[in-house]
Design a protein that fits this description.
Elements (H helix, E strand, L loop, with lengths): L5 E4 L3 H13 L5 E4 L2 H10 L4 E5 L7 H9 L9 E5 L4 H10 L3 E4 L4 H9 L1 H4 L7 H14 L3 H12 L5 H13 L3 H14 L4 H13 L3 H17 L3 H14 L4 H14 L2 H14 L4 H13 L3 H14 L4 H12 L3
Helix pairs in contact: 4-7, 7-8, 8-9, 9-10, 9-11, 10-11, 11-12, 12-13, 13-14, 14-15, 15-16, 16-17, 17-18
């Protein structure tokens, strides 16, 4: 992925430094700061940046005014431009949308929020005037980020009158969970997954709502679904977090230990992978798939004798386990 260069604009040096630190923590090395809109405009004329993140409130020229100046130059019509503020009102959201803002960021900054905004930069960038629905959704998200759940809920419920959306149902589920209304949260999350069967975060939310109700079986099933989607999307860190959460619900879940073993093996952390497989084996010592996975792990660790032991165990418990037989034969023939 091509490195992204950032121009940060804020007259508040502490806020500027905080945002710069977050971006560098996220792996972005080319980050430069400007103490005001005029300085930023001058820097932009010298260097081509990939993204501008500007505070709204600044003396002399606001971030909104800078946005309008940038958009008036054809060279920067597609340049991602983020505005930051401690509290966006609906009029501000509308003004920013009409000026061609890419996305809005609430202060104080949160690393995960910044990451999501940057990761979705190419998807959210829009140079046309946002529709009323887009503006309403942005307003709801800003209310949600400031934990104004009652007003956020009104916005999202109003949006449903215009048509169903998995993202809107997810946000309603999130709000209902925050308010302790777990039954209604589950209904909203379920609607989200019906509209988007690969919506991992909706399965996560549903699992946590079931967990809060003490319905551990349903919680485990939903969280497992989320973990599988994350793994299939190669989002190992998200999967790891969900899998460890499942263990809090049910410490004797064999599939979780086995899946964690697979995950750590893929990451190259062989010792941690082995510990997870061994935990699974203590619960079900006669499960052939676990022995097979341990055998494959020992092959990665160049320990062929231990690998052979576990492949033989897998075949002892399941004589028809062809993959285990093929690998064992290859080891004994010296072709591996």
């Amino acid at each position: 992925m091509k490195p992204i260069s950032f121009l940060l604009v804020d007259d508040n040096s502490a806020a500027l430094r905080e945002l710069s630190d977050i971006l560098r923590y996220l792996g972005h090395k080319d980050v430069q700061g400007a103490g005001g809109a005029s300085e930023a405009w001058a820097m932009l004329r010298i260097k081509a940046f990939d993204c501008i993140i500007s505070a709204w409130n600044m003396p002399e020229m606001s971030g909104l005014a800078l946005l309008k100046v940038v958009r008036n130059d054809d060279k920067y019509i597609n340049l991602p431009f983020f505005l930051t503020h401690s509290g966006f009102t609906k009029p501000k959201v509308i003004d920013a949308g009409r000026a061609g803002v890419t996305c809005l960021i609430i202060k104080p900054y949160h690393t995960e929020t910044i990451k999501k905004k940057i990761d979705g930069m190419s998807e959210t960038a829009s140079l046309s005037v946002p529709t009323e629905l887009q503006l309403s959704f942005a307003e709801g998200m800003n209310l949600l980020e400031t934990e104004d759940y009652e007003n956020a809920l009104k916005v999202f419920e109003k949006l449903l009158e215009e048509g169903e959306s998995a993202e809107v149902y997810y946000n309603i589920g999130y709000i209902k969970t925050a308010k302790g209304e777990y039954g209604e949260a589950i209904q909203a999350f379920r609607k989200a997954t019906q509209l988007d069967s690969l919506f991992a975060k909706a399965y996560e939310g549903m699992g946590r709502a079931y967990k809060a109700l003490g319905r551990t079986k349903e919680a485990e099933a939903c969280l497992n679904q989320a973990a599988e989607i994350y793994l299939s999307s190669e989002k190992e860190e998200d999967a790891e977090g969900v899998l460890n959460e499942i263990l809090e619900v049910n410490p004797d879940t064999i599939n979780v230990y086995n899946t964690l073993g697979v995950l750590y093996r893929k990451k190259g952390d062989f010792q941690t992978a082995l510990k997870q497989y061994q935990k699974a084996l203590r619960i079900h010592p006669d499960e052939p798939n676990i022995h097979y996975n341990i055998g494959r792990l020992h092959m990665d660790m160049k320990n062929l004798e231990a690998a052979k032991f576990h492949f033989k165990k897998a075949l002892a418990y399941d004589p028809g386990f062809e993959e285990a037989r093929e690998v064992l034969d290859a080891i004994e023939l010296g072709t591996l």
